[in-house]
Amino acid sequence: MVKVLNKQEQLLSRIATNDGHGENSPYFDGWKAYDTDPFHPINNQAGVIQMGLAENKLCFDLIEKWVMNNPRASICTPEGADDFREIAIFQDYHGLTEFRQAVSRFMEKVRGDKVSFDPDRIVMSGGATGAHESLAFCLANPGDAFLVPTPYYPGFDRDLKWRTGVQLLPVACESANDFRLTREALESAFEEAEVANIRVKGLLLNNPSNPLGTVMDKETLLEAVEFINEKNIHLICDEIYAGTVFTQPGFISIAEIISANPKCNLDLIHIVYSLSKDLGFPGFRVGIIYSYNDGVVSCARKMSSFGLVSTQTQHLIATLLSDEIFVEKFLAESSDRLAKRHEVFTRGLSQVGIGSLKSSAGLYCWMDLRRMLKEATFEGEMELWRMIIHEVKLNVSPGSSFHCSEPGWFRVCFANIDDETVRIALRRIRNFVLQSKAGSGKKLCRRKSNLEVSLSFRRLDEMMMGNMMSPHSPMSSPLVQART
Prior knowledge:
The chain is of the alpha/beta class and 484 residues long. The chain is built from 18 helices and 13 strands.
């Protein structure tokens, strides 16, 4: 049957008229619901609270203080204007030398100084989005595929597939073993691709995981390296949450694994990094490709012409990251604040019988609402998600949008809002759970009366009131106040 093209399809390209960007998914629909009815503590108290955005705003006060104390770092201040002419005209796609040196040193510090990185292998990109796409272009042809353990970040479908024509093949991981990646799952996915005559070119790992907030242990990483070497395929390790680890177990970089493994083919190893999560700079669009393959470094550097980081941004970042005293303090304080926020939020969930996957990193938790599903299907998950969006007025992301193999899991972000908004969100969740229990007569995983739940939340409120509008609360930031 011959497809009849509409007028737009006749006039525009396939990319312009296809749905490959992935905007038509619950993940992005939640953002749209927030955009049309955003919560505001004064102007719109009944609005949707944004808990679908993995932004790290808990340490903005530290960054703002550093910027105020270091005006020469910006060429747009009277103190830094002397460098304006040189920085404004310089646009070599290799990047400023001081920028690449500072970023490589920062990557080492985030990884506990257990590994070293060569500044000459640092390749710039327009955020991790651009880094992933550039790597896909370098490593695979249209129709080739990468294996990706589930659940995984929905943006990968856009970043690696949309313009490259590459496929992503899910490697199913299950809650029975806390969604850990196994060799059996890898072999199964690889064999299925072979049967379907799909050429697998690589394995993509997100460590620490988005959306799980977990880190991969040494044994899992060693198995992954062994697997890709046996199959002679690439390993892309997305480590953009490396600096968000707030408790044990700690983060182990793939760089540490291969440094102790002389049998590994280094030409197969590539790292994607960014400053969006660890420093909270998503708007700066600082993405990094670090490849051990000379050919990939050369090609990706040429491709970076399409997504360069501005030299003004490079100059500021280089100056900030070169302040090692500040960097040490920032990383320690960020870890401490993330740990406290994670504890407050997960404790609030547990007091109404809602569990979450045990995690040690990230800006979110993997919330378990399987017991609240009317039916254990993805249709049941979507029904519950719509209630949470439109009735509870919280933008959380359903597990199906992360390609989770089991319905009932949701990612909820906790580091992009202030203390008071967290308290309001937890109150909304509490009321929703109580109403659901009263309406159905069903009990969640903890046998608590409504009075006991209310008393638990009263204690939680009192605990949070003690931290209200603390220095690490985003709403106390002049920058945020100016935007609201």
